[in-house]
Structures are given as C-alpha cells and as structure tokens.
Design goal:
A five-stranded antiparallel beta sheet has the order 4-3-2-1-5, covered by helices on one side. About 10% of the residues lie in helices and about 40% in strands. It is mostly beta strands. Strand 2 and strand 3 form a beta hairpin. It has one helix and five strands; from the N terminus they run ββββαβ. The chain has one domain. It starts with a strand and ends in a 10-residue tail after the last strand.
Length: about 70
C-alpha cells in the first residue's frame, strides 16, 4: 500500500469536491492516479495534474507529541 502524505496545497478548480484555496489534504500517490482526501471530501486526479499542483504546495512536517507531566 502506498504511503499517505499530509500536505498543504493551493487548489484552483482541479478538485471541486474539496474546494479552492489553501487546503490541508491527505495524499496517496499510486501508479496512475493520485487520491486526495480532506475534511470536505475526496478527489482523484491524474499524476500529470498532481505534478502541477504539488509544485505550489508543501509537505507538512510530522507533529511532535508533547509529553504530559
């Protein structure tokens, strides 16, 4: 199974179910398709479309867990 990445990406009108503007999404890159999921919805894009979008966005770092005292 492909690894899931969390990214902050700026959408124009490529994924209408997710919406436009800056969104935090979970991305799974497959052989032919890229699957995107967010709180608002899910979408499936081709790898060529995703290559154009991914240039504008950036990957979010892993969250550090705070230790409780």
């Amino acid at each position: 199974m492909a690894a899931v990445q969390r990214m902050r990406v700026c959408f124009m009108d490529e994924a209408p179910r997710i919406g436009s503007g800056w969104r935090i999404v979970s991305v799974t890159v497959g052989r032919q398709w890229v699957r995107i999921a967010s709180i608002a919805g899910r979408a499936k894009l081709t790898k060529a479309q995703w290559a154009m979008i991914a240039r504008k966005g950036y990957e979010l770092p892993e969250r550090k867990r705070r230790r409780r005292k």
